[in-house]
Structure formats: structure tokens, C-alpha cells
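Notes continue from the previous slide.

Worked example: a multi-chain complex. Inputs as given:
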Amino acid sequence: MTNSFPWLSLVLALPLLGAVLVPVLAAREPRGARVVALFSTGITLLATVLLAVLGFHLNGGFQLQDQVPWIPSLGISYHVGVDGLSMAMLLLNALLVFLATIASWKVSERPVLYYVLLLLLETGVAGVFAARDLVLFFSAWELELIPMYFLIAIWGGARREYAAMKFLLYTLGGSALMLVAFIAIYLQARQNPDIPFASDMSSILTFYRNYWHSGPMAWAEVPLFLMLFVPFAIKLPSFPFHTWLPDAHVEASTPISVLLAGILLKMGAYGLIRFNWGLFPALIQQIAPWLIALGVFNILYGAFVASKQQDMKKVIAYSSVSHMGFVIVGLAALNTAGINGAIWQMVSHGLITAMLFLGVGIVYDHAHTRDIGKLGGLAARMPVAAFLFVVAALASLGLPGMSGFLAEFLTFVGAFTAFPVAAAIGAIGIVLTAFYMLWLVQRVYFQGPRPEFAEIGDCTAREAFPMFVLAFLVLAIGVYPALLGNTVNAFVHGFMPSLGL
Amino acid sequence: MTIDPSLLLPEILVTALALTVLAWDWLTHDKRLLGRIALFGLVLVSGAIGGQLLAGGGVGTTLAGMFVGDRLGLILRLAITGSAALVVALSLDIVSSRPHAGEFYALLLMAVLGAMFAVSAGDLVQVFLSIELLSLSSYALAGWFKTDRRASEAALKYLLFGGTSSGFFLFGAALLYGITGSTNLMDIARALAHLDPRMGPMALLAGLLALAGLAYKVAAVPFHGWCPDVYEGAPVPVAAFLSVGSKIAGFAVLIRLLTGALPYLAGDWLVVVTILSIASMSFGNLAALGQTNVKRMLGYSSIAQAGYLLLGLVAAANLGTKGLGLAAIVFYLIGYAFMNLGAFAVVALYAHLTGKEEIRDYAGLGRRNPVMALFMLVCMVSLAGLPPLVGFWGKFYLFSAVVQYALATAQPAYIWLAVVGVLNSVVSMYYYMKIPKAMYLDKADGAPLATSGALAAVAFVGAVAALALFVFPQPVWDLAMSAVRGF
């Protein structure tokens, strides 16, 4: 079960090691913390890429697995492993944290604490995507909470404490239900003496695949589904559990918003795929129309609300609600194209929304406001920043040749096959996205030069670098889809049979 | 009657230690050594109990069945003496320079002795006597700051509540004796198995009265009234001891009484314990939300923790899940001792250095003393039950026990009991985060705070154990399982 050397565990431990090293190495000179953090996240990114290139086989299913008994008498183990989906998410996590560290270069308040929390956050998120044990998954899921709470609450805006506590309690409320559901699922699997590790995700998926309708747990199917659906819907976020997101984004600083939207929301989608789709395939097929309806509603609702916002960050925040709606639609289509599209969207949205938040951050740092009504004509003053933001906006509205186009195209191909009417309604969302994104660009960057911004300069190379990297990836995936497509497609082809399709 | 001194060895040692402390106080002028003698002695006793555990000794009954030596007793007595050693370490800086330090340590050791006898009680008479020894010593300890009005109020309130609940317990014990003709817990169980059905309601009343008396000891709602006041008014080390030692003793007796003497009434006390649990969790957590005093907040937190622990007794009502439920209680008590004493150590340090105990006074501690702030953060997050800390496993086991009970007895309603439990821990996160919020978020001027060696060591032990027991829970879980194997 365990391969010769625990490469994956080593890569997962790198940010944790960094979190320990930051206070040690930067004890004398707090400003040095950022250098240590940059090295830690850089090495983590490099190691993750190497792991993906050298150690990962496209059609190998779960691989690079490490398993060590944790509480053997209760069947709980430390078990990590990756498949295509996990690998893609680990890469996204490592990349975005690295770029966020660069974007955090100017943090001057308590830098040591800041970078320790950032690295702990990276550890927790990576653990979620690599965990193959229910208890380990839950632990990693919660490990991310306290660092994120402090990252919003200490380095955020005016209402940061409120927003941070709201984020914390929403997520905790969801994970409370998740814990009870996990316990029930795990205890029932433990009744079967053939399963050595009852909290192992692989064992549980096998155990429950045909269990619900025959077993004594039939009564629990719907309650357990809901107890797992709510926490992931909160994280995604989906209406009506999304209200923490705009608050958290508005108050969080730029790099934290990048991580929040870029990678933390993907934890919700990831949980839906692994648990709700993985454990309850029969139920999912029954309620697919309702899920499509929820997804379409999210797309339209997010887009409508985004178009009415005055704060640039809120526009991007609600666009996330809208874009994560695509993920639900793609998943609920229950066909190869749809699920491919949903996972494309997870990666693509991670890259694009990170770019958008970085762009907003640059505007705020230079013009000292995010109020769309007060901004205007910035393109003349900061052409590079304007160019990069326009690239991000075009990617976000799904321009062909960029990653977002393929994600939405695949999603809707899948959705049209399954639910033509709902898909047609959802497609209005693409038009709405184009409307509010271009309108935002128009008002902030082009409409009438404003005298108060006559003095501001363009973004620096350090500010532009993360956006350039992301723009390059968005274009690279868009022009050469096999870069991401092979991995995702291999995963989907392994995943479809488990849905009974 | 034969007496087996090897079973009573820890108690004999603690008695000797208490007398030594008193004699030292009387005979010498060097009062600073008092605390160190008590600390050294308690470490020695803990070592002796640990040795008995490892050697498999200390098992049997003595004093005509009054005293039961078993692994549950050994493990929980070790938890009590270990916690007491940490409490003495907490007290060194605070108590030793004041007058009557010798009496403080002697009373603390007497309370420890009472708690130890309670844990090993096999007879209602010993339960009563040992609980009284623990309580009477605690009343005096709570009011040890004689000139402090709050301390006097706390002691008086504690005494009145304690006296009433002792009355409840005694009445219940008397009824049980009247019905069954014995005060021995095992004999009571045997007699109740063949009980005349007409006596059923009487037996139920007797069990409920005894349960009420013990619910007071563990600070379960509605017998919790003393808890916040006493925690607030008593010296910090005393509050720390009451929160841990008293709870361990109370739960040990509850385990022995409910599963040992009253298994045939399980269907009845199950309902009562469920209600007590829900009430304690919900009331404790909701009331803690509004608190501004750290010790008072920890008092309400302690009420809520009693509610979580009672979940284990719910699972103990079914033969199939009894082991899991009781082991979960033992594991939780051990983890709780570490994280709670760690938190109290920081409270004690801060109160000792600045004289302040309000949550808002902790503003800026994250800068003024990053190490102590980190320990406090760890203990608070652990108390809230979040990974990667031991509080998570504690709650995981307790909730697992309840869910297992629901599955084993096919009563889905008890899954909702677990949901009530986890939702309560979400609520508790709000107030447990208040101190970290003040420490890290609120700005305050102030010079760096020094760290006292002994207090920092206790906080260190608490925080590091909270982390270590998350990573390596198996040994303690094995210990907890072995403790309840005979039940």
C-alpha cells in the first residue's frame, strides 16, 4: 500500500516546515520572514511540480499513497494519495500561495505571524486535497480555519473582525454537520470486519456504493447526504449559504482574497465530488434536476448581484458565486463533458479570479479606493495594470483561446445534453458575465480621465509578475488544452463508472 | 476485616504527604519549601501509581468491599495526582509568599485524597465520605483569600450548594439502602435485579436523588449555580483544581454508580442523563458567550464540558456501546485536564503579574508575551474541540459513542443528540476565540511581560500535551479502553 519513499507526505510537510522555520530564522529581523516564506512556498511549488511531472501517471488512479496507522484499534490511519483531481488542486494551491507570498511583499505589520499563518493555511488546504482518510480530511479541513480567521482579522479592512468571525462560524457550522455524518458513515463501515481501516475513503466508497438501498442504513441516506451537502455548499459557496463570502472578500487583504477565492472555494467543490457524488451516486441521479436548478440559480443570481455592486472586490466576489454555479451545473449534468467542464472550471476559476483580485489590489494600492463610482481613466495612467486586468476580465467572461472558454463550453455541452432548457437559461449567465465584466473595465479604466488620478504610476514589476504568470497559464491552457485536459479527462474516465454511469 | 495496604498505597502516601506539609509548616520558618515538598510528593505518588499500572498491581478490593482497586481507579487517580502536581506548580508563585501557605497545600492534598477515595469507591458510604472530604477542603480553599469579598462569597455559595446536594445524595443513598439492604454498589445491583416491581418507583427516586447529588459535583445544569461564582472568586489554582480534580472524581463516581449499581435502571437514568447533557452543553455555552471575566467564562465552559462528558454516559446505557462511551469519558477527562490546566496557567500568570482577569485586559498579549499567548491559543482551540489538538479526539470519541449508541439501538433520535453536541461546539468557538481575539487583534500598549518559570512550565505541558495527544492518541486511548474493560 505504501510506496518506497513517502514523496507525497514530504511535499505536504514542506509548508509546515516553513511555518516552523519562519519564526526561527526571522527571530532577529522580522522583515526577513518574507524571504524565508518565499523560499518555503517556492520550494513547495517546485516540489509539487516535480511530483506531478516525474511521479504521477495519468491513468494510475490513486497513487503516491502513504499510509501509517493512526489509531489502529479504531481503524483510523494517516493515509494520503493523489489522483488527477487532487494533483491539479495541489498544483493550484502551491502556485497561488507562492504568488500570494509575492503579492504580500509589502506586509509590514507582524510579518512573522503573517507568514506562519500563510504557510499553515497552505498545509491545511494541501492536506484536504491529499487526504484519503475521513478523519485526516476533517482535520485538514479544520486546520485551515484558524489561520484564515487571523489572516482576515488582523490584516483586513475596517470590519475585519466581523467578517473573520462570520467566515469562521459559517465554516464551523458546516463542518459540525460534516463531523457527525463522517462519524455515522465510519461507524457503519466499521461493522464490516473485512475493512481494516473503516475511516479510509477508498474502503468507504467501495462499501457504500451499493449499500444504501439494501443495508440497514437506508433511512440515513437523505439526512447524511444533506449533512455533507451543507458544509460543502457553504464553502463553495452556493445560495443561500454564500453571504459570508462578500464580507470576507471585502475585508481581506489582496493576497488573502486571492487564496480565499482561488483555492479555498475549491475545497467545497472538491468535497461535493468526493463525498456527495462519490458516496450517493443513486441519490444524485434522482435529484440531478434540482441540483441543475440550484446551479443555474447561482449563476444568474451571482451575475445579477455582481452587476449592481459599487465595490470592485464585491463584483469579483459575486462573480465567484456565479462561476462556482457552473461547477454545480457541470457536475449535475452527470456526463463526461459536464464533469470535465466542472473540474476545468475549478482550475480555471482559481487562476482567473486570483488575477482579478490581484488587479483590484493594484488599483487599490495606487488609487486608494475600490469604489467604481470614484474611479475612471486609469488605463492612461497604468497601462500595464490595465492590460493585465483586461486579460483577466476577458478570461473570466469566457473568451475563446483562454481557459475559461473551455470550462464553460464543456459545462454547457454536458448540461445541454442532459437538461436543455435549464442549460439554455444558465447560458444567459455568460452574457451577463460579459456585461458586468466589460462594464467594470469600462468604468474603472477607460471612462473619462479623472484629475485626482493624474499622479499615480503604473504597477511595479513585483506587482505585475504574479498576474503575468497567471495570464500565461490561462492562455497556455486555453491554446493547448491537453496541458490540463489529459489529467482531468483521465480522472473523469475513472470517476464515471463509480457514479454508475 | 483484612486490609490490603498495597491497594491503598497511593492514599497512604498522600496522607503522609499532607501531614508532612503541616508538620513542616509548624516546625520550620522556611515556608518557600512547602510547595516544593508538595510538588515533589505528588510527583512521587504519581510515579507509584504509574508503577502499579505498569506492573499490573493495585487490583482487588479491600476495607470490606468499600475500596475497589481497578484500572479505572488507578488511571483516574493518576490523572488526579498528576493534575494536582500541575496545580501545585501553578500555586508556587501565587501562594508561597502569602501567610498560611502550609494550610493551603495541606487542604489541597486533603482534597486530592478525597477525590482519590471517591474514584475508588465501591460503597455508598465511601462515596459520601470521600466526596465530603473533597468538598469540605474545597470550601476552605475557595475562600482562602480571606480578605477578598468575592472569595468569601464564593466559599459561602459553594458551601450552601454543596450542603444541599450532599443532602440529596445522602437521601438517595439511604433509600437505596432501605430498598436493597446494602450500601455496597455490587450488592445493590444484585438486589435491584430481583426487585419487587412495586418498589420500582422508589428505586428510581433513590437513583435520581443520588444522581442529582453527583451532578452538582461535575457542575451539570441545573446543579451548576456555584460554578461560575466559585471560579471567579476562588484563587486561580483552586479554580484550576476544582475544574479538573472535582470533575474527574464526580465522573468516576457517576460511572461506578450508574453502570455499577444501577444498570437495571439504565432505561430511566438514560433519559435524565440525556436531558442533563443537553441542558449543560446548551446553557453552559450560551451563558459563556456574554462573559467578560476570564475565570467566569472558564466556569461556564466547565459546565458545557460536563455536558459533553455526559454524552459518554448516554452510550453507557447500552451493553454494546458501554465500553466505547466510558472509554471516551476517560480519554476526554485526561485530555481536558491538560488543556484546561494549560489555560489556567496562563490566567494565573497574567493575574499574578498584572492583577487583571478581564478578557479585555488580555489585549496585546500576542506582542507582549508571544509564547504564553501561543499556549493560550492552543488550549482555547483545543477546548473548542478543533484539530489538530486533543480536544478534537475527545469530542470525536464522545460523539462517536453517541452515534454508535443510535446505530446499535436503532434510535435515529440519538444522532440528533450528537448534532446538538457538535452545534454546541460551534457556539463555544465564539467565546473560546474571545481571548485569542483580544491577544492578537486588539491593540494595547505595554512592555513585554516576563514569564514565571513554574507557570510557564505548566502552560507548556498543557499546550504540548494537547498537540502531542492529537498526533499520538493511541497510547492514551488504549489506556482508556483498558480502564473500562471490566465494566
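Summary box: Chain B is about 75% helix and 0% strand. The mean pLDDT of chain B is 91.
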